[in-house]
């Protein structure tokens, strides 16, 4: 059991290796597709830096793969509210991301006041708050407050969306 | 005396009622976010960037200055009352501070931290005033090759010296540099990593990147591991100190300041090393060594002063050279660029009003902190009780709002989420955040100087080292890179080379002669840490990479401080190479 868990943990870090490798390859391929004539005023050109960065990423990917396979492991970050004794709680994270995505999809059509309130309420729910009414009141106050605060204080017009004309 | 006149002018700008109000808001906000778990000063400045667009740059930076020092102050409150330091710089404070709080001396611990922070912040800012113009005079004479070399040194130092694993530092740096590449090339207009997406042509907005990595990534990460049992906070009244406490505190404050400022000013100094050095020094010099580990006031006073002095030190390279060396400075630098202000030595010529007002407001902010926070400490302690769902939902809410308000594009929110997930993964796999953010900010400037250097030499590669200072800096770069290999060789030859030096007498208060501190701390480390990570060239050993953040949170404070000691001792060796 323990062994399996530790093997799985090692494997998840290999995903990071894949990500690094992919980013490195993309950076290099993208740079290679740039065509610029050699210019006396810019001997370095726009391709050099991406090649260096892509190379760095690929080297890091290889070294990380070796490191992980030899038992190396990145140490997860600790913090005041972080309890590393239990594994990643996807039941909190996935709904949280859901609330975030919902806001991205809705913000331009229904406006910030509604989508922002949904974002706060949904996030609070995902994080375990079950006082629905109080959460909703705080959410609406926050989103209305920021809407008017940005409009009056900073001159930034957040989208009013469905409530256009009401606000 | 010219400097003095400029500073006075800065005071007259900063002391207008409006600007004092911004300083006040900044100090309050900074302390609040410093106290709140999960939010640090870097995240606070990042979240506030969009809000400050509507402000005058001067007012905005006065507010940032308040947040910067306020955040440091708030962090120490948390570590004393909660014993779970949010950032590495306050780990050491937590060791003795929390013990004091438990023993019913929370008021004294908070008081010595607050007054020590004030003393160190004021002296540190005075040193900043004294040294920064000298650095500027030196820096304006530098050409592109030297600049390039210095920036490469800063990148490498932040990546390879700080943090537990060098490899993971470089990974983070590479990702940051890649993010910095996105957009149209400034010289040729060629599009890089744009993928036909017109919204990417202008590059990734640094505000979006900073908010994503610091705020969204952090909120998601904490959500994934949220502590279900709330931590117990120690209630506290108004901080105060007795005569005996004053007597035992003032020397550690001064010694801590002397450690903190120079380390903060170095490219990779940071606050961890000086706070640790200060702790070790105080333990050695104390008349009550038996109290260490059970709540010695010197162990709070010294490290806390070192922490704040290092924060002041960090501003020297940021203002004089445009080089950020900690996360908050990096975000503040991003704010300069957002205002179209070019950071670097010319800043003092082009924007003297802004710079000197900023420096003056550091003095003001520091004083405000002391005046406000001593009476408010019980209120701050209450902030720790805020329901966590609201806290983290609020962070996500304001992160979204901030990133959206920059361009009013939903696309920025997609980027925010993608980069936030990257920030989550980085925390999961132990990739440090700082190299990434510094890479995003310095990457484009490194490229610019690289191209300028070779442009001047018409493509001749020797144009990269045709200035003596550039050569000198590259020698240091080579030493930084080669050092682990040298240490590895030395360790293989002689397994415990430094353990004998534990009783070398130290010269207090002088960072230039820190041999005693080094050997003392290394010796402490060799007892506790054993030889687990000795043969690990990349510094990524499975167990030897304890950054000490957990160390402050258990009763095992002493032994983990020991294992930190070994790594710190290594770091310090680097520093001595650098200087």
UniProtKB/TrEMBL annotation, chain A:
Residues 18-159 form the DUF1468 domain. Pfam families: TctB (PF07331). InterPro entries: DUF1468 (IPR009936). Keywords: Membrane, Transmembrane, Transmembrane helix. The chain crosses the membrane at residues 12-36, 48-69, 136-158. This is Integral membrane protein.
From TrEMBL, chain B:
Residues 20-438 form the DUF112 domain. It holds the Pfam family TctA. The keyword Transmembrane applies. Residues 564-579 have a biased composition (Basic and acidic residues). The keyword tRNA processing does not apply. The chain crosses the membrane at residues 20-49, 61-82, 109-136, 142-162, 167-184, 204-224, 354-377, 389-406, 469-490. Residues 499-579 are annotated as: Disordered. This is DUF112 domain-containing protein. It comes from Arthrobacter crystallopoietes BAB-32.
């Amino acid at each position: 059991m323990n062994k399996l868990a530790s093997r799985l943990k090692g494997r998840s870090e290999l995903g990071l290796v894949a990500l690094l490798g992919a980013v490195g390859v993309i950076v290099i391929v993208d740079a290679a597709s740039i065509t610029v004539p050699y210019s006396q005023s810019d001997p370095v050109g726009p391709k050099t830096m991406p090649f260096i960065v892509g190379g760095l990423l690929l080297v890091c990917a290889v070294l990380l793969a070796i490191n992980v396979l030899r038992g190396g492991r990145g140490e997860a970050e600790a913090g005041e509210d972080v309890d590393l004794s239990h594994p990643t709680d996807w039941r909190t994270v996935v709904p949280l991301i859901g609330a975030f995505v919902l806001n991205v999809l809705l913000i331009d059509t229904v406006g910030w006041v509604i989508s922002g309130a949904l974002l706060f309420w949904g996030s609070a729910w995902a994080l375990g708050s079950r006082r629905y009414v109080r959460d909703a009141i705080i959410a609406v106050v926050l989103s209305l407050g920021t809407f008017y605060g940005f409009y009056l204080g900073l001159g930034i017009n957040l989208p009013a969306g469905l409530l256009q004309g009401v606000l | 005396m010219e400097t003095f006149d400029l500073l006075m002018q800065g005071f007259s700008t900063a002391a207008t009622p409006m600007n004092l109000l911004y300083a006040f808001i900044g100090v309050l906000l900074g302390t609040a976010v410093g106290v709140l778990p999960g939010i640090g000063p870097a995240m606070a400045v990042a979240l506030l960037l969009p809000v400050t667009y509507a402000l005058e740059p001067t007012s905005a930076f006065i507010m940032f200055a308040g947040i910067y020092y306020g955040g440091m102050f708030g962090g120490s409150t948390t570590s004393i009352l909660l014993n779970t330091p949010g950032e590495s710089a306050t780990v050491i404070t937590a060791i003795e501070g929390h013990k004091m709080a438990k023993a019913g001396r929370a008021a004294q611990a908070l008081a010595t931290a607050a007054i020590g922070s004030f003393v160190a912040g004021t002296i540190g800012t005075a040193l900043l005033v004294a040294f920064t113009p000298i650095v500027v005079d030196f820096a304006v004479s530098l050409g592109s090759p030297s600049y390039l070399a210095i920036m490469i040194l800063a990148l490498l130092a932040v990546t390879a010296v700080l943090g537990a694993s060098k490899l993971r530092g470089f990974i983070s740096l590479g990702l940051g540099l890649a993010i910095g590449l996105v957009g149209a090339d400034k010289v040729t207009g060629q599009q890089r990593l744009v993928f036909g997406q017109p919204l990417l042509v202008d590059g990734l907005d640094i505000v979006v990147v900073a908010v994503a990595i610091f705020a969204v990534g952090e909120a998601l990460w904490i959500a994934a591991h949220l502590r279900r049992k709330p931590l117990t906070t120690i209630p506290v009244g108004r901080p105060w100190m007795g005569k005996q406490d004053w007597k035992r505190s003032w020397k550690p404050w001064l010694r801590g300041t002397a450690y903190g400022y120079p380390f903060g000013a170095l490219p990779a100094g940071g606050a961890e090393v000086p706070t640790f050095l200060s702790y070790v020094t105080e333990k050695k010099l104390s008349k009550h060594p038996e109290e260490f580990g059970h709540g010695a006031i010197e162990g709070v006073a010294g490290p806390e002063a070192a922490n704040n002095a290092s924060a002041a030190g960090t501003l020297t390279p940021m203002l004089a050279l445009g080089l950020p060396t900690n996360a908050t400075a990096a975000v503040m630098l991003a704010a300069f660029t957002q205002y179209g202000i070019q950071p670097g030595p010319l800043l003092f010529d082009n924007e003297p009003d802004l710079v000197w007002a900023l420096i003056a407001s550091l003095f003001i902010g520091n004083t405000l902190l002391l005046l406000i926070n001593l009476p408010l400490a019980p209120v701050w302690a209450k902030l720790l009780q805020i329901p966590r769902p609201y806290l983290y939902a609020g962070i996500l809410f304001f992160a979204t709002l901030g990133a959206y308000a920059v361009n009013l594009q939903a696309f920025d929110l997609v980027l925010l989420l993608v980069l936030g997930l990257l920030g989550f993964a980085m925390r999961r796999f132990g990739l440090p955040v700082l190299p990434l953010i510094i890479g995003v900010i310095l990457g484009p400037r490194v490229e610019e100087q690289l191209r300028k250097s070779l442009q001047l030499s018409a493509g001749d590669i020797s144009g990269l080292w045709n200035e003596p200072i550039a050569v000198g800096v590259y020698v240091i770069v080579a030493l930084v890179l080669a050092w682990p290999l040298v240490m590895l060789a030395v360790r293989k030859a002689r397994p415990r080379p430094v353990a004998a030096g534990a009783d070398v007498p130290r010269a207090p208060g002088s960072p230039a002669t820190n041999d005693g501190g080094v050997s003392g701390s290394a010796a402490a480390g060799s007892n506790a840490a054993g030889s687990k990570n000795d043969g690990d060239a990349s510094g990524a050993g499975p167990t030897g990479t304890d950054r000490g953040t957990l160390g402050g949170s258990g009763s095992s404070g002493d032994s983990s401080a020991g294992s930190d000691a070994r790594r710190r001792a290594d770091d310090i060796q680097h520093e001595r190479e650098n200087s």
